[in-house]
Amino acid sequence: MKTGPLDYVLSGACVTVLLCLATGTAWAVSTNGPWQHSPYRVLLGTAAFLLAYGLFTALLLAMVRRFSPYPVGEYPMVSRQFTYWKLCAVLSDLAHKALRPFTTVFTKPLLYAVFGARVGAQAAFGGDAEDLPLVDFGPRSTLGHGSVVTAHLITGDRVVFAPVRIGAYAVVGVHSVVLPGVTLGEHAVLAPNSVATMGTVIPDDELWGGNPARPIGRAAQR
């Protein structure tokens, strides 16, 4: 991945602003109120810093998307879209690390929604997803432990961005990979340790598996 001076300037400026905001929040929380003399003040301040850093990052990224939507399509490495994506990727990665102490199976759907994903009711995520503004999780969809969903792919000197949709009640199996442009229909299942290559469409109620994923049967009856 090519990285230039502009990438360092943009990410450095954004991270500096976010650190200042998070530090100010932590100071305000730990030095005011009934807990300012508490022996747990440092712990409270640390938690406030991490939470504030993550949430301010989500707010910043949402504001950026208001003026410049997340890219979709194929672009060269030297392009405005690639620079935009690298900035979003760096900021998102740092924010997710900051929010890790607050991230559980129960809170991850909310976290993904805050960072731009479309998340249906009662979705469950044991795996991870990237490029959240391009990912759509249907109601009761499931990501198995260790699975990865990504809406970008770097090939040679090009980068591809394409939306990913995981339909209602669809399941991405343990340690499986879903690449850009993939669609899992309702009640579709991607078997464990499988790879749904770019642009794959798994119809409703079908079971696919392998690398690359191919139809191997019907999913369980509804």
UniProtKB/TrEMBL annotation:
Gene3D superfamilies associated with the record: Hexapeptide repeat proteins
InterPro entries (UniProt xref): Transf_Hexapept/Carb_Anhydrase (IPR050484), Trimer_LpxA-like_sf (IPR011004)
Keywords linked to the UniProt accession: Membrane, Transmembrane, Transmembrane helix
Transmembrane segments: 44-64
Lipid metabolism listed as a keyword: no
Signal peptide range: none
PANTHER family for this protein: DYNACTIN SUBUNIT P25, GAMMA CARBONIC ANHYDRASE-LIKE 1, MITOCHONDRIAL-RELATED
Name this polypeptide is given: Transferase
